[in-house]
Amino acid sequence: MTEQTSVGYPNLGRVMLVDDDQELRDDLARLLASQGYHVTTAADGQEALERLESGVPDALVTDLVMPRLDGFELLRTLRETGQAIPSIVLTGFGNVDKALSIIRDLEAYWFLEKPVKLSALQSLLQRAVRHSRLLRETATLKRDLQLRGALGRLVGRSHPIQEVFSLIQQAAPSTVSILLIGESGTGKELAAREAHNLSLRADGPFVAVNCAAIPETLIESELFGHEKGAFTGALERRPGCFEQAEGGTLFLDEITEMPLTTQSKLLRALEERAVRRLGGRAEIAFDVRLIAATNRRPEEALIENKLRGDLYYRLNVFQIELPPLRDRIEDIPLLADAMVPALNEKHGTSITSITPFVLERFREYRWPGNVRELRNVMERAAILAGSGAIDSAHIQIDSSVRARPAVAEISDHPDAVEKTEESITLRAGISLSAVEAAFIELTLRHVNQNRKQAAAMLGISLRTLHNRISEMRESRSQRNQQPVPAVM
Length: 488
Fold this sequence. Notes:
By secondary structure, the protein is an alpha/beta fold. It has four domains: about 5-145, Rossmann fold (3-Layer(aba) Sandwich), CATH 3.40.50.2300; about 160-320, P-loop containing nucleotide triphosphate hydrolases (Rossmann fold), CATH 3.40.50.300; about 325-395, Helicase, Ruva Protein, domain 3, CATH 1.10.8.60; about 405-480, Orthogonal Bundle (Arc Repressor Mutant, subunit A), CATH 1.10.10. Helices cover about 45% and strands about 15% of the residues. The protein has 18 helices and 21 strands. The strands form seven sheets. Strands 1-3-2-4-5-6 form a six-stranded mixed β-sheet, sandwiched between helices. The two termini are about 40 Å apart.
């Protein structure tokens, strides 16, 4: 495996050249590099896949017949993992029909017969690189169009989140207090920031305070400030959050974790529109818009004496409830896709897509940590994948926490799936992963557990079949702690 580029020429694009003929491979790489291409080479499909982990080229040129992993399996694997790389197939005499079949079935870009004419290869490469760049531009435009269903960094097109967008847009221009309610990780601070950004105070500061993260002995100093010498350790005057947020918005997160005595002082400050620093004598007027948030139901917090009733009624002028992620499953692909550019920038990765199988697992999961948990899962996956598509090997979620029936459950619900030796009958409402599991089990039974034959019948690679079976076995084992049936 080598890399070649030519100094002094413009970079016409990144090309991966895959061929087991070392002499041909080196000659083509040298000639293409002299034209201005950045060329990476690999001796077979397996080496090419390993090389692709460090970066995706603009175009792929691959031989058809190679050891270990041939051109057909290489292109099939790339398609299954969501890596749409414009490809040119090199074929010897007698393989033209197979090359044409690959172009039709696997969406390769074109084919060339050996011996390769450099002029023809250059012409096709120019088209392939141009097509690759158009694909990236289209993906960017598609993402931008999708994100028009967003409010700032809040993303989603489901009915629950669209209602949130509408309420924020209505409340933002006013000066009334907003109370945000929602489970941890649903995006309450993001919602508060968008309300601020859409308000007449957008040019002013946005100050966020997590009441649960500040010790009880310090929270009053944090909110109202203190004078020098007000208490041990107060070595200098310090303005509080109300003063820091002057002319802007103060966001108090987890308001029900604030001590009741401090809640009483907060209520007075809101009514008087003035604060007094600890150890101070003068009242300091403020002009601040307050947004509060809690992950508790206010009614329960009142009963449990976690929230003062008079403060609640003062804060609850405009209430907005953010839905948990499990109640807007249809937003998950859009959310995950929207996270990719930021994660690529943060970690220097080059993730291009998320495979359909991963998105299906995301839809099945209950997400107790909501959008914050999804971001953590995506961040880990992006780091593990590095480039290309995020696949099932890159994600780590608790398979027992399900929002809908999982792959492992299909054999345990006879009302959902009816099986015979040669067919299955599915009931409406079954997940795609469950349908996939049923067909895999049926096909394996039909070919007497011959996995190679089953993979051919299912139209997938043997490697993909092995991965699917391992995922099904792991899922079933984690959920029921039962051995996988013999057909697996």
